[in-house]
Amino acid sequence: MKHHDADKITEIFRMEQNNLFRLACYKIGDTDRAADLVQDLFIKVLNNPDRDDIKDLKSYLYQSLLNACVSIFRSAHNATFVPLDNNIIDDDYNNDDFMQEYNTITATLQQIPAEQRDVIMLHTIGNKSFAEIAEIVGTPVATVKSRFRYGIEKIRKTLNNNKL
Amino acid sequence: MTCEEFRNRIAEMFDFEHIGNDLWKHISECDNCRNYYAECCTVVNFITPKAKLEIPHFTFEKPCSKRRISRPMRYLSYAALAIIAALFAGVAVRYYDLSNTAQAATQAFGNASLAMSEVKNFSATIMVRTRPQDNFNFIDIDAPFVEHTLAVTHSGDHCLWCISKGNHHVVCDGMAQYQWQDDVAKAYISPYDENIIGIFNVLVNIGQLMDYEMTMAKQSGNHYDIARSDSLLTLTVRSVQKESPNPILKQHNYLTQFDNEREYVFDIPTNRLLQMRYCIIDDGKKQIVLESRFIDYNHDTAMAQTIKIPTTQHEWIDLRSDIEVQPDRLTMLQHETPTEAATRILTSIFGQNTSTASEALILYDTDQLADTWKGYKLIGAKETIHSEGYAGVYVVLEVISPHNQHNTIVIALRNDNPLRIWRIDGGI
Fold first, then answer.
1. How far is residue A66 CA from its own chain's centroid?
2. ipTM of predicted complex
3. What are the φ and ψ backbone dihedral angles of A105, each rounded to 5 degrees?
4. Which of A23, A35, B141, B266 could join B233 via S-S bond, C-beta 3.0 to 4.6 A?
5. In chain A, whose CA is at the least distance from the CA of B39?
6. In chain B, which residues have pLDDT < 70?
7. B54–A6: do the CB atoms touch at under 8 Å?
8. Based on the domain organization, do B198 and B290 belong to the same domain?
9. Is B310 part of any domain?
10. Furthest-apart CA pair in chain A: how many Å?
């Protein structure tokens, strides 16, 4: 059992908040809701009386975030999401650039199965290594690598076909 | 390793933590798998967001927290406690250990410097995060690895070397430097002493790099770790940002903004360098930007001398003697600022009238350039960036594409030519 005091949780959140936020944005397509989701997650972990039972806090955060994103989809399947046009701190890109990128990436990732998509998103958007992803999704590293490979291969073939 | 095995393990090439040496070895020998890897890199790059997206508001306030000392005061208390604890718990012993490690590093780099100065021939495969179309002086931490092969021969007072990446080659025969691309008609001959290969100039003179590390170890501003096996000595150097004017990293100012870690592996019996790896530490994550593979000293013949320069297959332009420019125009060109020069050059390319910038575009196929940038409009220059290790300057410009998209482009200009006029260097 590990002892996760509030300062340690805060420190981990400081390190991971932007990765968590980016991932939530790309999962649910709404920056405001994504920000709220990350904030709620922080409070939920702090208030969790069983937090010392958590084996790996970082993985737990990502697991919880992915679950929360799924819950949002399940509970609000009729909701209309506000487009991604707010709250982007943007030095080098204007909002059109981000929207274009968001649309391109999500459209591309829609072509592959959800479990492959999650692995790829955790890697490219969440900046997680395959070992970290294995902890988060609860599968062996070899499975994570296979999912990554099959996902990339499918996208590669589609892009090549589109070129022809 | 077979091609099938490589494809099954392709994901490992994208792991942040560990990439197997056998995978790199395979793509260094197999064109098909190298192309496959390049395609996968393109896919990963395509689906990786580039736009900055940071959480807009986040509070670290703890719900129902007890009344407590303010955070700055707590940190001060912790700092005071830490200082007292360190004083009474043997910081002196720790310092003594660090000093010893730095001494061992000084000795290892000194030995390597001596050993490398005695090496006549060596070749190396070096992976650099860069873009295939750029010159040999560019590291981009977001780019995939590109393989470079380097062969060096010291012959009397001369150093002969050749470097290749893909179809792009530069050979120095001890008197001049020859630069060509297999599928491009124009090729160039540059003076012997002009630095056209940037970071690889440091690697050609690798003994000097060891000298630098030895000097740094003496000054001991870095943190050193040493690991030994029966035949290998691994030295890891960690430098905090801006404290290391490392000859390779200082080629790009932006790289010196990061903490970095440099790993050198030496062969204990000969003191020769067997491997080196440069990492940038960004937000606590290590990102390898340059890594050597197969530094090979076992050449009976000088590999650099065996490279044939295809003198009959290209239109060779000799840059050792410069073009003629009318005196009035020369005065005007010599007095231009980099921003003015960049604006004039891009205006001429975008306006399909490259003759007004022909002196600056001597290295380029101007028709192709005009064709590539057809329909673009220049808005203006945004800034000029000087990079310590680069002889030229970078000018950042804003343009509008034919599809009305705003883009930022960077061009490198340098004026260290006999005419002292600004010329485009490398890609746009």
1. 6
2. 0.83
3. -65, -45
4. B266
5. A156
6. 16-20, 51-53, 56-100, 220, 241-245, 251-254, 299-306, 322, 387-390, 426-428
7. no
8. yes
9. no
10. 57
